[in-house]
Automatic annotation (TrEMBL):
Protein name: Response regulator
Record key words, sorted: DNA-binding, Phosphoprotein, Transcription, Transcription regulation
Response regulatory domain ranges (all copies): 2-122
Ranges for domain HTH luxR-type: 146-211
Length: 216
């Protein structure tokens, strides 16, 4: 198969190039950042890309963002993500973007050559290859979210709820967060809905939401 690699560690990148070549695969490109990978794929699409999660310039999630972009624009290209970490939100997006031709392995698996090559073959064949540890953490996170409604709140909704807990009015919250009062009201209604307080007649939804926040 034709493979493109994106890995900022030159040592690991060259090791993967050598391994794939020894297995009879063609390495069409081996680059050190996500932008170079996207450019290489656009110029001459491979069968599969193998991409690290954290790469220049910020070393946060460039590789995963590139993987998601490729799933959106080039669904015919298989994507195998390698990472030292389980980036749960992006891993979930990657899994739900398509169940075919996609994989997410922890870098420890690369040392298990047969497992890595098997995952690559499955992605090339249109299957899925997710590290058992990745799946375990995704399922554990989903269980936590079902058990804790606060986990479903967005960062902005958490800010609004925290300000409510301080006793701020909607107008005061709007001033602090530099948004309109109507935006605060929308966030508040979203909070009430996610916490299951829409039908809390006879009680102050605001107080009940704050109590949930303080008890978390």
């Amino acid at each position: 198969m034709r493979v493109m690699l994106a890995e900022d560690s030159a040592l690991l990148r060259e090791g993967l190039v050598r391994l794939l070549a020894e297995e009879g695969h063609e390495v069409a490109a081996a680059v050190g950042d996500a932008d170079a990978l996207l450019a290489a794929v656009a110029a001459d699409p491979p069968d599969v890309v193998v991409v690290d999660v954290r790469m220049p310039p910020t070393h946060t999630d460039e590789g995963l963002r590139a993987a998601l972009e490729l799933r959106r624009t080039r669904p015919d290209v298989g994507v195998l993500v390698l990472s030292q970490y389980v980036e749960r939100r992006f891993a979930t997006e990657l899994l739900t973007s398509s169940a075919s031709g996609v994989g997410y392995l922890l870098k420890d698996r690369v040392a298990q050559v047969d497992e890595f090559l098997d995952a690559l073959d499955r992605v090339h064949a249109g299957g899925a290859a997710f590290d058992p540890e990745v799946v375990r953490r995704l399922l554990a996170g989903a269980d936590r979210e079902r058990a804790d409604p606060l986990a479903a709140l967005t960062p902005r909704e958490r800010e609004v709820l925290a300000a409510m807990a301080e006793g701020l009015t909607n107008a005061a919250i709007a001033g602090r967060l530099h948004v309109s009062q109507s935006a605060v009201e929308k966030h508040a209604n979203a909070i009430f809905g996610k916490l299951g307080l829409d039908g809390a007649s006879g009680y102050s939804r605001r107080v009940l939401a704050v109590l949930r926040h303080l008890g978390a």
